[in-house]
Design brief:
With 327 residues, chain B is mainly α. Chain B is built from 15 helices and three strands. The termini of chain C are far apart.
Amino acid sequence: MNTFKIGGVHPEPNKLTADRKIETLALPVQAVFPLSQHIGAPAVPCVQKGDTVRVGTRIAEPGGFMSASIHSSVSGKVAKIDSVIDASGVRKPAIFIDVEGDEWEPSIDRSDKLVLQSNKSREEIVECIKNAGIVGMGGACFPTHVKLCPPKECTIDTLIINAVECEPYLTADHRLMLEHSDEIIIGIKIILKVLGIDHAVIGIEANKPDAITLMRSKTSMVSGIEVMPLQMKYPQGGEKQLIEAVTGRQVPPPPALPANVGCVVQNVGTVFAVYEAVMKNKPLIERIVTVTGQDVKNPCNLKVRMGTPVSQLIEYAGGMPENTGKLISGGPMMGRPLLDDTAPVVKGTSGILMIPEADAIRRAERNCIRCAKCVQACPMGLEPYLLATASEASDWECAEENWIMSCIECGCCQSTCPSRRPLLDWVRLAKNRVGGIIRARNAKK
Amino acid sequence: MAQKLYITTSPHVHCGDTIERNMRWVIWALMPALFASFFMFGLGALIVTATSVLSCLFFEWFITRFLLKRPSTLGDLSAVITGILLAFNLPSNIPLYMIVVGALVAIGIGKMAFGGLGNNPFNPALVGRVFLLISFPARMTSWPVPHQLTAYTDAVTGATPMNLIGQIAGGNSAAADQLPGLGDLFLGNIGGCIGEVSALMLLIGFVILLCSKVITWHIPVSILGTVTVLTGIMWLINPVLYVNPLYHLCSGGLMLGAIFMATDYVTSPMTPKGMVWYGIGIGFLTVVIRYFGSYPEGMSFAILIMNAVTPLINNWCKPKRFGEAVK
Amino acid sequence: MSFILTAVLVLGLTGLVLGLVLYAVSRRFKVEEDPRVGQILELLPAANCGGCGFPGCAAFAEACVKQESMDGLKCSVCKSEVMHQIAAIAGHSVELGAEKVAVVRCNGSCANRPNLRVYDGAPSCAAAALMNGGATGCFYGCLGCGDCVKVCKFDAIKMDPETGLPVVDQDKCTACGACVKACPRMIIELRSKNKLDRRVYVSCVNKDKGPVAKKACDVACIGCGKCVKACPFEAITLENNLAYIDFEKCRLCRKCVDECPQHSILAVNFPPKRVAEPAPENQVEQQTEQ
């Protein structure tokens, strides 16, 4: 079985919710839509306080090329445009909507019927995806329409569908594949049409045999789409690692893109959203969220309207366990800590994870004993111990010379460190500073 | 929300590895060799090992408590390993005060003077050993012959395979007759330092270290490989003067050094490529000292010299970066 | 006897030859240096703090000699008379502004601004600031990891373990500005020292709206603007829900201090107020009546 070559770790999978069917969560009382839910410029509100909106009404327009629009997931009245603390942990501008009823935009096809064909042209499809506000659903939230328009000098030959879900605990993509496989395959065909190629590979880790079997049987009649089981190893769901696992090609260091080696990677969740946008005219207003944790009473996979406060999800899952020490949006390896349970669900929320206090507390940091386990674990072939030390000493030059910008912040180094050093905290700081220095240098040129 | 949440960035889980776990496995891996040495040298081996471990622990506690005024670091077990390794590098009939002096140098100068575990440039046990070797050369280079179970400082001493190999290379072909058989060498039925005699037990320790993922294969294999290749070439050139490479592999401190001393985390390189070069360097220097130096055994010096080169190796040997263009 | 002679001769000759080599090398590779640079360097503090914008005291001394005037050249560490001496050596004249001192503009101690969460990541304000809002409800205030303490070359700033805030030792502070640059929240400001080290400043940088700021911290500036109205010298401006006192306009009258409902304006090094003065509440009432 294929996998990537350098580094990697094997965290406990803890897929508690793998066999829980997707359930639909009730509407919230008030939905909150932060204006920057994606990489790039924040969206610009196009509604005002007091406006009435329906489900699917666009409430914010893209703030630039690298941006995405935001749609209301509920019907009701715009209460205010204020700020909210979102998953990134800082106060950001957001639109608050008080929910009244559940009235949908009439243009949206709400039936369950599978739509197989569409006669939209490539440009129309891209426009449709852009209008629907679709971003990468894996967590990075890169606007999808930008990704589907690779630079002209690159020839794309492979579309890779990321169904790896290598993060422990999360099962949203797994359940989506089991329950919406037909839609996903139509979505893949749509994206293939946009890219003008005829070869797609669905990469699935070997711990999801049911999904592999199902997708294999569904794609057996479709030419050009291939299912590839992959060895279990974290961070296989990282874009660069997945490309290497599937094609054997290595993406050069930044600023190179996957398109430079002829690949476009899309998450299954994104593919599903593309299907709904193109075939059903439904913007990105819902997503599947795994609510889980060791001591959670009723861990589950929920279909949630965007903007629902996290507290409502936790309540559905049986409330926050007494011993919770950390509340995380996303998985345990790359997720972000939430400051409290009032944060809303946004486009990139793949899971809500509650970690018991005993596991949440970091053990006291000690001297680096130079065991080299971080070097062995790093999937990018970096030396985390060196980068962290350079960062601690504010030696940004040393960090840049040692390829710090290649770091994908997967957390392998820190999760293996026997001295419990906060390696990634330091590396992240250095990456931020070096990035600033590089941008300043480029701006001078 | 009653409870206070922790806010730290990802990753939020840890594989559970600790310094203690690694150190514990090293201690377990050293146990077979300790058992073999007890079998060969009897009480002396136990007395020396116990003294060494206890004095290392005492000095570490004393220095952290009274000189550095820091919380005690005894819990990380590294002093225990230093103690065992120091004892393993001593003959079983060495007087107690020498062991204590060796432990003081190992912990005090070899480790704590640089700031404790993680900051020492040289392997502490080897610093202690080499200090004793230079200070008390006579006591440090006379080894008791095996099977004197109740003897300690009064044990009868005799020539070790390393002395004999040196004599043979010096042209004394009569020494070849005294050389023990390969089987005895492999099992450890020979004279020598406490921990180094039984190649078999040390190899069992190696397997334990590999299985518990404490070390990787790179350093030991490259050291042993280099020694085999170099001594093999010399043996092929002149089999009368130079012995079979298998004798080299199984005698002296080569196995102990390659498996337990050279692989010391703090003083060995960080990248696989660097580890291989480091191993080749140690192997080369060992053979050079064994054949051309004035000491019969060169492992300690070879490791210490390569310890000094480790920072340079770390600078030169970078891991293969993801996406790096193939030159 | 002869071996002694041999030894003396050998050593003497070796010494002579090596001495000649040293002399030749020092002649050959001699670097011409303006003697004034050395003189200036002796006056400088030799801390290489970088507060002047040059990579060290030597570079600053060289710049003093090379440049036409002392414009833009100021060692923030040196006292003004020393600066005048330096200028005299370099052959320039110099005009100096007011002496400054670093001021920590956050009073969110553990009591005023309780921790709502626990941060136990890397012990660095910069790393903590990168992640999110931090452990308290205030997203602008001090993070308390002591980055400013680490960069201070003069041992002039310390963390107070009780309040969790840094404290500047005004006698040791040289206003080199290292802490100002290090603070990711931009709390520390260089303000003029004034007579008798008296200072009046808004000890808060929270730009949140009043209710949010008030909820986060007992002494947060809520942007009510009372101080702006109270100031007779127009030294106070209000921007983004935050008051700021311009230290060049401020005459240290302390009217704003009494006016501030949040006690976020601090006056330091003033003698304690006389009891005879009318209580500040009465004043407020009188004004509202009028």
